[in-house]
Amino acid sequence: MFIAQTNFAQNDTLPKKLTLTGDFRFRVEPDWDSRKSDGTFRDNRTRLRYRMRFGANYRFNNWVQIGARLRTGISGKQQDPQLTLGDNFNEGGTLPIGLEKAFAQFSVDWFQGWLGKNTFPFEKQNELFWSDNVYPDGIAAQTKWSTGLSWIESIGINSGYFIIASNNGPLNDDSSFSGIQIVSSHAKQRITLFPGFYYFNSLPDIPDGNGTFTIDYSIVHVGGRFELLEQPKIGVEVDWYRNVENYTNNDSITNQLKDQQNGIVLSLRAGQLKKKGDWKARVTYMRLERFSAVDYLAQNDWARWDYTSQGSLDGRLTNYQGMELMLGYMITDNIKVNSRYFLVEQLIPYGPFSETGQRIRFDVDIGF
What we know:
Blueprint: E1 18-32, E2 45-59, E3 64-72, E4 83-84, E5 97-108, E6 111-117, E7 137-146, E8 154-165, E9 175-186, E10 191-193, E11 196-204, E12 214-229, E13 234-243, E14 262-271, E15 279-288, E16 320-332, E17 335-346, E18 356-367
Antiparallel strand pairs: 1-2, 1-18, 2-3, 2-4, 3-5, 5-6, 6-7, 7-8, 8-9, 9-10, 9-11, 10-12, 11-12, 12-13, 13-14, 14-15, 15-16, 16-17, 17-18
C-alpha cells in the first residue's frame, strides 16, 4: 500500500481536479495513577478535548498534484493536535491553527514521490515509533511492483530524507532523518512484511531548542502482520526495533541507559473499521527501551510524561512498558466511536521511583 496516497481520489482516466477532506474529533480523557520520578503523583484529571482538520488536494493531471491541510493544535506540540476545552485560549477567544501538510506529489506507474511536508511514507501499524500527528519535512520516494510469483506477490521500496532542524550550514550539520524500507506481500496478501532501517543524525536530547547534547540513532526495524482468519477478520501484528549505535563512550548518557536500545510491540486484533456496522477490538503489549525510538517523535497517547520541566511541551514516550485495550464501532460510514485504555510503567527510573500512569480515551470521529 502506498501510504501517502490514502487521502487522494484516484482516477487515471478522468482526474478529479479538487478534492476536499476534513474531520472533527471530540474526546473525553480521564487520567489517574500518574506517579512522578520523585514518588509524588500528578493530580488526577478529566479533560474534554477536540481536534479539527481541513485539507485540499488539487490534481493537475494524472501524475502531478499538490496538497495542504490545516489543523488545530499548539505549534510547539507536534505530537498532539487536540485542544482542551477552556485551556488558556481566553473566554470566547480564537484557537491556535497550523499548517500540517504542504506538498507536491508525483505518481507514474510503479513510482510515487513527494516534496515538502507530508505523511510519514513508511509502512507502520501503530504510533509507538512515529506519531500519526508528526509530518516530516523533506523528500520521499515509493515504488511497488507485482512479481507474478507464487511465494511473493508484490514488493515495494519506501525511502526518504527529512530535515528535523536546519542549522543553516551543510546538510550533514542538520538534524535529519533518513530511512529505507522493503514491503512485501505473501500467501494471497495474508502476510505482509516490512523490514527497514532508519538513521537519525544529530538529534537534540531535548526538543524545541533546549537540548544539552546531540545524539545519533541507527534503528533496525522488522515489522509484519499476519491475517489469521478472514471471517471474522483476526490478525496479529509484530514490530521489533534495535538501535545499533554504540553509546559506550558517550559521557552525556548515564550508564544505566547506554544499553537501552531494544523495542517490541505485539498486537492481536479482531474486526475492522471501514463502513457502517463494522467493529474492531485490539490488545497491544509493548516494551520500548530508552533509545529504541526518538521519544518526542513517537506518540504521546499512552502517558502524561513530557519535557515540560525542560522547557518543551513534547512528550517523552520511550523507556516504558505497558498495554492497551481498544474497542471501536462505526455508527455510520463516516462516524466512528473508539475507546482505549492504557496502563504503563517506566523501565529505568530517572529518580527514586519509576513513573506510572493509567488513562482512558473515548473518541467520537466525524469525517468527510
